[in-house]
Amino acid sequence: MGNTYVIVAETKGGRLRQVSLEAIHAAALASHEEDKRIALLLGHQLKEAADELARYTEVILIDHPDLASYQAEIYFAALTQALDPIQPYAVIFGHTAIGRDLAPQIAAHLNAGQISDVTAISGSGDAIAYTRPLYAGKAFENRQFSSSPQVITIRPNNIAPAQPASTSSSITELSYTPSTSLRSVIKEVVSKSAGRIDLTEAKVVVSGGRGVKSKAGFQPLEELAEVLQGAVGASRGACDAGYCDYSLQIGQTGKVVTPEIYIACGISGAIQHLAGMSQSRIIIAINKDPEAPIFKVADYGIVGDLFEVVPILAEEFRKLLCAPN
Amino acid sequence: MNIFVILKQTFDTEEKISIQNGKIAEDGVKFIINPYDEYAVEEALRQKEQLGGSVTVVSVGPARVAEALRTALAMGADEAVLIQNDDSESDEFTISSLLAAYFRDQAFDLILGGYFSVDNGAGQTAVRLARLLDIPHASAITHLQITSNHATVNRDAEGDTETIEIRLPALFTAQQGLNEPRYPSLPGIMKAKKKPFLTLEQQQLNGIEAEIAPKTVRTALSLPAERKSGRILQGTIQEQTVELVHLLRNEDKVI
Lengths: 325, 255
Known about the structure:
Chain A is α/β, with parallel strands linked by helices. Helix content of chain A is 28%, strand content 28%. The N and C termini of chain B lie far apart (56 Å).
């Protein structure tokens, strides 16, 4: 009998998140052939997402109105109701807002070690090494478990997603018994990100710094991001100056992103910012100052005024992406 | 209101990282209060100013951490507790276990911490602690208001803002935007020297036995490959953008 690896899958707007497919692949990389891999899906009205998930692996679905949106206590209760009978060897989450919040709760509950924000998995057998960044990417460590159960969160965009199997696996529905002793209740959710691509999962990130000069200065960046189906980020300078929300901040304080393309507009490139984005595949810097440190890490640099460059760039991408091949 | 802040001392974010003998070099490094924990300290002080009570800052770590705790005292915290732990191999399991053992003997209404630490970045310790103490929590908060035995918080969830009402005692982790931390004043620094500073050995914590050995272990450490400076494109802006789009599609194949 093998061990059981549980992947906690996530949806956004009813659709499966890419990071959940990456987590399924992570489970495959970490486990043996004879081990069992189950994806656990919590939420409400997720039939379609469950069907899609079953193309990759066996699914346990907990569908309940109380799980319609994430609440720390309720999700913890539902997840432990599913996990405790399984006695998992490992539980794998995406390193997302939900995963970051839920995984440590589960780790404490299981008295388990946890390795967070994993960017690569290597090794085999009992010597599986999990690579993760330190100092937001100024260094990397390999970490291994010295005990089980194990809890893992994986960073979006770093591990290849799983490929669908030729046949669908089973979906088992589990009931959820609501907890009667809730100590917290969500009063309101103000959605500022509806329809937007999450920064940490985006394939393209268009980021603005002090050079955008104002809140309105982000407008051309948003248009460029839209053309590329990417997300908008910012440097600390832009956030501190009040040009944008702190939730967009990329850097050692803030988010760490690893997109395919990172476009830094009007960002000088302080060491803290570089820590948060220097693992991006292709870095493009647009800055008026040819001496800006950002050019030292950029694959391509354009020396010029972002307000002139960004709209032209958006237009060029639009021409390319809208044109028939 | 008994307010506690769990605090970590980290490298200054401006430090470059180097490796010596398989470890992150600490020689000559400037240490600070983890920036997110600094928001937690500031919030604790603001809540105390409104509601009365006391602020105790607690840290687990080696002797050098006393400096960060003294800074928090100079900002206005009333007491500091250092749980001595010189083992650099400790993981979040160990740290949260030590903290839980300490808190089980304390009367607390509110525990504040940072959303994550800028060195390790795992973001586990505070949430683990809440679970070990079986108190509710909210992470990444950007606003906190306390009325009698309830807290109303705003939390940042991937850009959305959730408003949550939580019964105390509870634990919250601070996200950027919560407040603007104050600097220690000169009188604050002078006063800090006379404030209670308790140093605890692990053996002095109740319920801590040998079973706090870390559950994960570092097996390798490396620096990222240096990025080479790329190409500064030439020509008019129009020519440069055309070339850039061409390169991304035909050479890098990312578009």
